[in-house]
Design a protein that fits this description.
Radius of gyration: 20 Å
Largest sheet: none
CATH class of the largest domain: Mainly Alpha
Number of helices: 7
Number of strands: 0
Helix content: over 70%
Length: 156
């Protein structure tokens, strides 16, 4: 186990830091990943490719951490929803979280309204163009521009 820790610690910690953008969370995530690796080793299950196992565990732990964060963020008990069978609902939670942070991203009012109506209110481009009294092509541009700004903010 020490050899695995020595070999993979820097890689996993760097990956966790990119995922969390926070040293404390990255340390927690790294610890949880190595705990899962240790528990897997204790099961005495043959391992074909160690590298694949480690990154599969890392992604699963990250997914669970992200899912728990989103559930806490919107104050919905886990018993009330079944995210694993409703990915569209998970997307909606993520969009709502992004919507709450849109004022910090620097969107114009039209970009903000288009993004919010499209992703949170599930309106079509045509319905949004009627509501905002502008052309559909303008709405498409506002959505494109807003998506670019959101991606720039969240995916760097």
């Amino acid at each position: 186990m020490n050899a695995v820790y020595d070999k993979y610690f820097e890689q996993i910690y760097s990956w966790a830091l990119k995922k969390t953008n926070n040293k404390e969370d990255a340390e927690d995530l790294t610890n949880n990943i190595f705990l899962a690796i240790f528990e897997y080793f204790n099961k005495n299950i043959p391992i074909e490719k160690l590298d694949n196992l480690i990154w599969k565990l890392a992604h699963n732990i990250w997914y669970l951490k992200a899912k728990n964060y989103l559930n806490e963020k919107v104050h919905i008990p886990l018993d009330d929803i079944n995210i694993s069978y409703n990915e569209q609902y998970l997307d909606k939670i993520i969009y709502n979280d992004i919507i709450n942070n849109l004022p910090n991203i620097g969107l114009t009012e039209k970009e903000f309204l288009s993004f919010k109506l499209y992703y949170c209110s599930d309106l079509s481009i045509k319905e949004i163009s009627i509501k905002l009294k502008t052309s559909e092509s303008n709405i498409k541009y506002y959505l494109y521009s807003a998506r670019c700004k959101v991606k720039e903010r969240y995916y760097e």
